[in-house]
């Protein structure tokens, strides 16, 4: 038996007083797990008794020395753990208590409130002297942080300040983001997150999320169990091969899952403790990163074929085994050749969602449905031309075809003929079918080959032009002018991210169309003044859809994603666009009401899940909107005992 003197308090657990006995768990790196029982005769500086059947084994290994902590002359405590006396080649044991109080409480981002700890809490949790005497409100903390962040000139500096805040004070981070969502969304997500991923190795500080590499093959379940939170409801996972429009960033793609899950919480109200960001590191083909001394991932070429699929199979099996049937796995920024295959492979066995394919499609469809109120007609009355035939392009096209089929009762094979796609080799036509990737083949219509986008625009005369190419400035002046020549109000959606990859800018779209275009982009653009009128560009941001969509799946206990749920999400978002928004030319509502919007999307998605018999949480709540709002995480500080 080892007797150690300990000064601790119960933090987030029930308070332990002199008349109570409490138990807490002590963990150490050698996996020794022992129980410490607080001596009931001591309220503070009580004796902690450690007992373990493996204690002798630990002694024999020399990693812990049997010693009773003695007070020194100077009032300190002897080096119980041997850290100060050990030489560099000796092992020490990183003990830590699971109870947060005092100094450890101030460094626990889940519970830290900084100067907002009141006097009673400072006494109860041994914070006296560890904080300045001032007690401030959370509102003042938000005001102060916004003042600090606004002093930075570069978006990346603001991003780093926000990530630092998230690691220090979780609730303050989310309250600041929720209350300043339109200003901060471009910082914590696109476009700034793209630059952050490019420089992730250089700015890497405290690790966020789980990194699962080829080195962990055969041990992925063990790696998942290393994550401290056990009740995981949403996982966002990437392999970093196609980060936004920036290409292969390898392990540095972790910024995407971290950013997406921040939005799940801020915009959709999913608890941060139930969110898990994951990067699957199978190497990178980016030579610049492989030669970068600050690169944080595996220094090898990307694994493909069986080696890749076996790792993903093990990951998906481990996720279900560890977290159950109802955990949502969102695939993010996988390359085309893997994204479609993974969605098809696991869509029947897991609750999976690909935001690049399905989320983008849902938000764009919502914008198109809303735009009908400005241009008139139904979806079936319009002709659609895409530049880009990857995940986003084909995903959007398929959802549009499904919605038209639903509205007209036409077979989806027929409704697809209203939609044409242009890829890097020109218009996708039937004469190219043998050389096309499988996800492009449904869009190979009977038509003469056309090489350029401008020729395709002039020949097909679309009413809607959608860019998902990932190549900037491809909607040229000639293309936009052609769209405006045969459409009174051409719908132009330049969706590629980040801003540098957008097919055209808002200013270009409005200027070249003489102010008649209905424009939206993937990344934000500032309002544009043209001939005395101010035009406010919309943003077809996936953040409108995936947080509410995920919340709807979670609160209903849905076990599989169905296309009808995506249509339900689109309809809910389109219904949130007001006449005031239409008067400004907007086809999306402002982000200021995003939590209300997310609640309505979640309710629509959950209602469809119950209708399809895919919801497991019974009975169904009577008012799904109110239920969604009640499920949302609140970033307001809690009072501590």
Commentary on this structure:
This protein has 25 helices and 19 strands. It is globular. α5 crosses α6, α6 (170-179) packs across α11 (255-268) and α18 (453-460) runs parallel beside α19. A hairpin with a 2-residue loop joins β12 and β13. With 641 residues, the chain is α/β, with parallel strands linked by helices.
In short:
The protein has 641 residues and is an alpha/beta fold. It contains 25 helices and 19 strands. The longest helix has 21 residues.
Write the layout of secondary structure elements.
Elements: E1 2-5, E2 23-27, E3 33-38, E4 47-51, H1 55-61, E5 96-97, H2 102-106, H3 119-124, H4 138-151, H5 155-168, H6 170-179, H7 181-188, H8 192-198, H9 200-203, E6 210-213, H10 220-224, E7 234-238, H11 255-268, E8 275-281, H12 287-290, H13 305-323, E9 328-331, H14 336-346, E10 351-354, H15 355-375, E11 384-387, H16 391-408, H17 412-415, E12 419-423, E13 426-427, H18 453-460, E14 464-467, H19 477-486, E15 491-494, H20 506-512, E16 518-521, E17 528-530, E18 533-535, E19 538-539, H21 546-556, H22 563-574, H23 579-583, H24 594-611, H25 624-631
Parallel strand pairs: 6-8, 7-8, 7-9, 9-10, 11-12, 11-14, 14-15, 15-16, 16-19
Antiparallel strand pairs: 1-4, 2-3, 2-5, 3-4, 12-13, 17-18
Helix pairs in contact: 4-6, 5-6, 5-8, 6-11, 11-21, 15-16, 15-22, 18-19, 21-24, 22-24, 24-25
Task: Please give a handful of descriptors for the protein shown.
single chain; 641 residues; alpha/beta; 7-stranded mixed sheet; 5-stranded antiparallel sheet; 25 helices; 19 strands; 39% helix; disordered N terminus
